[in-house]
Amino acid sequence: MPSRSPKVPRDAVHHPLFARFYARFSVAADLKAGVAEHREELLTGLSGRVIEIGAGNGLNFAHYPAAVSEVVALEPERTLRQLAVTAAMHAEVPVDVVPGAAEALPVKSEAFDAAVASLVLCSVRDLPRALAEIKRVLRPGGELRFFEHGAAPGRPMAAVQRGLDRTLWPRVFGGCHTARDPLGAIESAGFELGTYRRLRVPGKGPQLPTSFCVLGVARRPHEDAR
Fold first, then answer.
1. How much is the pTM?
2. What is the dihedral of CA 204, 146, 7, 22, to 10 degrees?
């Protein structure tokens, strides 16, 4: 199988104005909403070569354990990528920040022990294609660590999410969709779901359209070996 997929159109990439907003907002969220603790939980126990999809401004980098030998961190937006490069310089593990989109990972098949998707599957242009690419680059038995927000369990908020997704929300928030089903999409892509838990972010206060999160692990089946 070829090691690369077709290029993704440029309009799949975040707008620079949103990137600057996201960079400031995400740092504040880590501090106020306890997101840093979730990042730590997400990455605990990882080892070997890891690919991170949509690394943003690199807030995960400080949480990678020492057993990780290398992180290849993809980020399509230039402003965020520049911030991620700075964050990589202070990481305890080697991090290589490169341009790239989830739907067309510029790396060889079966090259990684684990993949990390952290608050990114909501905004990819083609979710099934992105997950197929993640599966391609993982070795059989490799892990997908995910921390994502998605559809609310209650009908009123779920209806609000669907309305937002059909109107301004994706345009304002860099392609983000609030009503996606990350667990269902991961299973449909052929991953085996491992342990996971549902949580609210932030844990206290009013519910937001992006409050309903899931954090866990899935694996590429061993029998997928080509």
1. 0.86
2. 20
